[in-house]
């Protein structure tokens, strides 16, 4: 199938995405080493090609129109695919060995990263991987300090100076020991009752804790945690012992639910405890090459 004649140039689409990410046509032009008039001319040519107004121009700057925002949303996966293609071709040419420096929060590292790296190995077999694991706050610090090029975190927000793309979704569930009163109740539990109960929580900086606390604060004034523990394994052990209920990723308690050492508590509205997994990178340094390839695998998984 031939491309339609109005297909935009990738470099101009990339310029438009940079305007969206940096909030300024001038900053986007500077990042590419071109003048602002040259950048403006390329965007005007794109507008003429698509027959759409993409930027609202004013003496104080430029911002995306609704049509421009839509084009940016469609352009991002196109550009990611192009970067992945170039990375793959580069790796195949001369069997070059590429390096991947990433960091991931514990849930993602345990339950998503292995399958993503397996898929990456099939696409780019000569890639070496250095993975660092921590809570979401620690991962954001590693990305911000350039210790890694790409991070994967949970939770509702990312730190200043970073950009993010949603790469998946996760379900959080309330779990208790089999002897807990919640395990034998006849009907579903209201989220307000969960919010009023001291829970076992991860330490501050954890994406799981941030996601849970964000939900609880929306429906009530949560009491102090029953305990703050530094790992999911420690929380599961305390929950199994009957210390208190916990809210954890379903991914992390699959074995305990199967063997009956923990029981999932039905909620009247389970949708409130869903969260997003995000890829993160330094602002203005959108992933390219093998990093873009891994991010695309994460989105497809």
TrEMBL record:
GO terms for molecular function: DNA-binding transcription factor activity; transcription cis-regulatory region binding. Residues 8-65 form the HTH lysR-type domain. SUPFAM superfamilies: Periplasmic binding protein-like II, Winged helix' DNA-binding domain. Keywords: DNA-binding, Transcription, Transcription regulation. Gene3D superfamilies: Periplasmic binding protein-like II (3.40.190.10), Winged helix-like DNA-binding domain superfamily/Winged helix DNA-binding domain (1.10.10.10). Pfam families: HTH_1, LysR_substrate. InterPro entries: LysR_HTH_N, LysR_subst-bd, WH-like_DNA-bd_sf, WH_DNA-bd_sf. Belongs to the LysR transcriptional regulatory family. This is Putative LysR-family transcriptional regulator. The lineage of its organism: Bacteria, Bacillati, Actinomycetota, Actinomycetes, Mycobacteriales.
């Amino acid at each position: 199938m031939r491309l339609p004649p109005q297909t935009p140039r990738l470099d101009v689409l990339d310029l438009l995405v940079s305007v969206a990410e940096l909030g300024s046509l001038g900053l986007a032009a500077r990042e590419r080493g071109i003048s602002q008039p040259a950048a403006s001319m390329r965007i005007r040519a794109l507008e003429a090609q698509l027959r759409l107004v993409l930027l609202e121009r004013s003496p104080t700057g430029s911002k995306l129109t609704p049509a421009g925002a839509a084009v940016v949303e469609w352009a991002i996966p196109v550009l990611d695919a192009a970067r992945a293609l170039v990375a793959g071709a580069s790796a195949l040419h001369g069997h070059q060995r590429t390096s991947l420096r990433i960091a991931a929060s514990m849930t993602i590292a345990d339950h998503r990263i292995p399958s993503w790296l397996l898929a990456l190995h099939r696409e780019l077999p000569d890639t070496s991987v250095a993975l660092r694991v921590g809570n979401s706050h620690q991962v954001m610090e590693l990305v911000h300090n350039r210790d890694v090029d790409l991070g994967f975190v949970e939770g509702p927000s990312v730190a200043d100076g970073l950009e993010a793309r949603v790469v998946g979704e996760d379900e959080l569930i309330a779990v208790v020991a089999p002897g807990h009163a919640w395990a034998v109740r006849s009907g579903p539990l209201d989220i307000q009752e969960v919010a009023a109960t001291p829970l076992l929580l991860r330490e501050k900086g954890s994406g799981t804790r941030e996601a849970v606390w964000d939900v609880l604060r929306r429906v009530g004034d949560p009491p102090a945690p029953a305990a703050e523990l530094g790992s999911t394994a420690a929380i599961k052990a305390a929950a199994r012992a009957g210390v208190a209920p916990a809210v954890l990723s379903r991914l992390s308690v699959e074995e305990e639910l199967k063997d009956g050492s923990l029981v999932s508590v039905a909620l009247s509205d389970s949708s409130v405890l869903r969260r997003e997994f995000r890829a993160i990178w330094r602002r203005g340094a959108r992933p390219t090459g093998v990093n873009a390839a891994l991010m695309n695998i994460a989105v497809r998984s």
